[in-house]
Every structure is written in C-alpha cells, then in structure tokens.
Predict the 3D structure of the following.
Amino acid sequence: MAGGLKNIFGKKEPMSFLDHLEALRWHILRSVLVLAAVTSALFFFNNFIFDTVLFGPTHPNFITYRVLCRLSQLLHLGNMLCMESKVQFKLVNTQIWGQLTMYMWGTIVAGLIITIPYILWELWRFVGPALKPNEMKPVRGFVYAASILFLIGAAFGYYIIVPWTVNFLNDFQMSSTHIDNLLNINSYISTVTSLVLWMGVIFELPVVTYLLTSIGLISSSFLKKYRKHSIVAVLIVAALIAPPDVASQIFVSIPLYLLFEVSIFVSAYCERRKNIKTI
C-alpha cells in the first residue's frame, strides 16, 4: 500500500521513496497482467470484435446511420442526416504484417477499454492510502465516476464521432482531380481506436475538475470567467474530430460544451463541500 508500512507494534510508518516505487510497480504489474488476460480472452471473439464492432461503421445498417436517418425525418430535414446510401468502404491491406498487426492492436484496445475500471481501481489503491480521512471521503467515488465517464466518452466517440469522421474522409476528394479512396486497414483501425480512446479521455473532464478543485488549483469562478473561451475551444476540438458540415459540428459541439458546464457544476459542488467542512 502507498500509505505506509506497519512496524512490529502494528503502527504505520512512512514509506520511503523506494517503497513507493515498489508499491507502484506491483500496481502496474497487476494492471498489465489483467489487461493481458482480458486481451487473450478476446482473441477467441475476433469475429465479433472486428466484424461487428471495429468494422461496424462500414456497414450500411450500422445503428448510428439508422438512428440519424430516423431523426432527420422526425425533424423534417429530409435525408440531410442519412448516411446509409453513402457508406461505401473499400478496405485494403498493403503490408504483409498489416492484418496481423491490426488484429493484435484492435484486440489490445478492446481489452484496454474493458480493463479501464480495474486500472483506475489499482490507481486508487495506490493513491488512496496516502490521503487523510478528510481527503478520502470527497473522492471516494473516483473509480466509479471515472469509469462511467470514460465508457460514456468511448461510446460517444464510437457511435457519433467515428461514423461521421470515417465517412467524411472516405468521401472527400480534391476538386482538381479524381482519386479513388481505398482505405488502408492500418489507417482505418488506427483512426477508429484513436477517436474512441481520446473521447474517453476527454469525458474525464468533470473528474479532473473535481480533483483540481479539491486541491485548490481551480475554482468554479475561474471556469465561469473563461466560459466564452471554452466555446471557442469546443468549436476547435469539434472542427478537429468531426467533418466540417453544420450538422456534424452541432452534434459534436453540444455534448462537449455540456461537459464543460457539468465541470463548472462539479467544481461549485466541491467548493460547497469544502466550505461546509470549514464552518
């Protein structure tokens, strides 16, 4: 444990720097072993992981396309949001190790997403014992909140960001010439996994905000002061991860901005808890 070691009288003594490194090494080792075990188990479900999950956005009947088309009709937008007819992917492999490499990488990423709650729990086991009792209570739900937010972000990336991004990039052509887009499997898998993982990380913003507010590095007034700046930042992020059409920008920008507003609420909640304890 990272908090201290017990002596012969059962009392905790401060751990040295090397003791902390040793404890951290075991937490990392257990996380790696669990990740390896989960990844190994997923090798038996390769058809589901690749055909159903990773290659899901290449299928015309992917759930996102069906939902968006239905939403477009409900909003009387015609086929503005429909993408079924545009889904025409041609995945190719140009390297002799390409399919094997991407097979292993895709399985590892799937294992990582499944293992994230356990990795966060190991992180909490390392950091938690070093906290004082009054510091422990406010962050007791760290593992649950961080795990849920990461999974929500990963789902948002997979069901919203990935379909729009890969379709836009696949359909994009320079006006001066005609070049057929044959998507390299390495490029496709890397794009999908990167977007999913990064969205999972971005959705950790409320948890990071709570922790930073707890130690006094930021405040709700600080976040409110830069609210207008956050809108610009959200639009920039949306422009980077979504196609440059109005519908895509709106669908991506709104959740990201709501995430910032939730962070302000979380920061204010943390401040109220701190004020109650100091009274």
Q: What stands out?
A: Residues 5-203 form one domain.
